[in-house]
Amino acid sequence: MKFDYSESYVVTEAPIIIGLPSDFHQMDNFEEVDTLLNGLTASIVEEEVLKTELGVITTTGVTIQTDYRKVIAVGLGDTARLGQTDIQEAFGRLFQYLKDTNTKDGQLLLDTFPYDPGKLAEALGLMSVISIYEFESYKTDRKPLFAGEAKLMITSRRDVKETIIRANKLGESIALARNFSETPPNIMTPEYMADKVVAIFKEQKYVSGQVKDHESLEEEGYGLLAAVGKASKAKPRLVTIEYRHPDAGSFKPIALVGKGVTYDTGGYSIKSKTGMPEMKYDMSGAANVIGMMNAITEMELPVHVVGVIALAENMIDGNGMRPDDVYTSYSGQTVEVKNTDAEGRLVLGDAVFHASQYSPSLIMDFATLTGAVVAALGTERTGVFTNKKPEFLTPFFEMSRETGEEMWQLPITEIEEENVRSSSVADLTNHVEKPGRASFAACFIKQFANGTPWVHFDIAGTGTVSQRTPYGPKGATGVLIHTVVKYLETGDVHE
Ligand code: BES
Ligand code: MN
Ligand code: ZN
Q: In whole angstroms, what is the distance from residue 52 CA to residue 49 CA?
């Protein structure tokens, strides 16, 4: 969506878009708006022609001079109680209304929204991209995307342009991650994904990177990642992208690690015919790390970050990994594979240990790791685990309240520590036949953090949605890109 900016109302043919609080006198420019509405604001609201309930979109018409104009109102409810997620969702509904009605033109009177102008502009810039996101499908009759054709005039006395442009970058980074996730798995192979990442980041400032192919992974001892990926024709890759802003160059990096299983059949512990479809999304952790790195580099955040994405396709062939196999991890610990469908933790074991070699102050990993986290927390909360005290997670919970990306902590205790060590032939096992599987999986990965402060996000439930929300369509969400970028942007992350 393209934006133009003006300081006051410009007479055009475009529909007029306003925010409508239940007490409309709260609008900063009520007089102006009321004049535009021919002094009828009060009765329009009283007769419920336009509604003020939060997030509700209603329309009417007014005559301006001698012309008839459409007015689109975004209900804001009681503005004393408005939070950032409310504003985001209200904008999401607005943009989806524009898309659904194919309204490609509009003039948004931003000062009608009684809310912190900076935060308002952030929500606007973000939601204008992600709420109407659409994957460029392979349909032979597909039309040009709405977002590419729509334009909006932003009318405000405040200078909001820079903030909107910046928030657009975050939105585009989420869209980028979604594009990766949505691309079918016969195309989005480890090699293809690695090549794309190289192409994206080689143009960026302060970035260096490295790709390891299957041969180097085996030679250098990444035994777990190599084992998971070896049965596929599309061999595994490990991609590292380091972004080192000059203002943060002397600080230890923060590592972002993503599970990139480009397809998860389960391997010899094969998934059922209903469990397998949608497993193209099993690389969403990696896709979201790519989105985070894209936002960080595009916004030129003053941080030092290492992104690690571990790419493999979990398939079956004569050389495939079997239950009972033992492999030596990059960390040197040996692992007995008891279930080849518990592949994410294997891939991440090597990737997290690889990340620890950069001496980071913190490792975060993102993975569609377990069905169990969905059973525990549902599809609207990410499961969070750490090897530090619970207080360590406070900043993440704070950020997530602002972004709307909810999360809930789950435990790792002695119980799991014992279970991951219960193999009779190796140091660790990737699976035991016991409940509590999200915690077990997290505890397995913890063995590879090498003592580095570590936070694990199990996004199996939140990486996709089954129906449209104000944040976007059914499918990949790009979850936690917003929260992590906010964390890196606002926190004293390097102290
Ligand atoms: N990729 C799956 C987890 C998953 C399940 C993601 C459903 C999204 C939706 C993971 O690799 C997996 O297969 N996990 C198994 C582990 C089990 C075999 C120990 C699971 O959770 O069932
Ligand atoms: Mn699996
Ligand atoms: Zn998986």
A: 10
